[in-house]
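FORM 12-B: Structure-to-Sequence Request
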């Protein structure tokens, strides 16, 4: 049942990320799938973090305009690192998730910007996307925690 919960949240995030966010007049959009990968890594360990990072990264690569495989590469690494960190951190705190999402967003943007040759506005993208992801993090954590509570986990 946890897999079904995860798929519902991921598909909902994909719809919002690909259909709703482009309608908003934001220069930079949040990366909801990164927030989910970090959550799963922190809560379920490095194996789940790594697998979810690769899977969700490939899903994002299929609908994005950046080089195919780059999101999967970055999310796989960050999912694994989140899983390793989750064994050492208190993961019941939303604040832990926020810090890890902020750190992961910075790493993700540095790698992706490096792969694309550091465009002129990469610092602006880094700052805004980090802020947006941090703001979206409590919502994603709340969705997962609510679902886990209903499933009795």
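FORM 12-B RESPONSE
SEQUENCE OUT:
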């Amino acid at each position: 049942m946890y897999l079904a919960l995860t798929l519902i949240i991921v598909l909902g995030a994909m719809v919002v990320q690909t259909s709703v966010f482009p309608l908003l007049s934001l220069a930079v959009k949040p990366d909801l799938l990164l927030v989910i990968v970090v959550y799963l890594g922190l809560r379920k360990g490095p194996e789940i973090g790594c697998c979810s990072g690769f899977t969700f990264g490939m899903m994002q690569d299929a609908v994005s305009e950046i080089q195919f495989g780059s999101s999967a590469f970055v999310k796989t690494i960050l999912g694994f690192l989140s899983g390793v960190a989750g064994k050492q951190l208190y993961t019941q705190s939303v604040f832990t998730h926020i810090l890890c999402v902020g750190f992961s967003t910075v790493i993700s943007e540095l790698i992706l910007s490096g792969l694309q040759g550091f465009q002129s506005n990469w610092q602006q993208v880094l700052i805004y996307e980090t802020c947006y992801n941090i703001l979206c993090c409590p919502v994603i954590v709340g969705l997962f925690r609510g679902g886990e509570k209903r499933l009795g986990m």
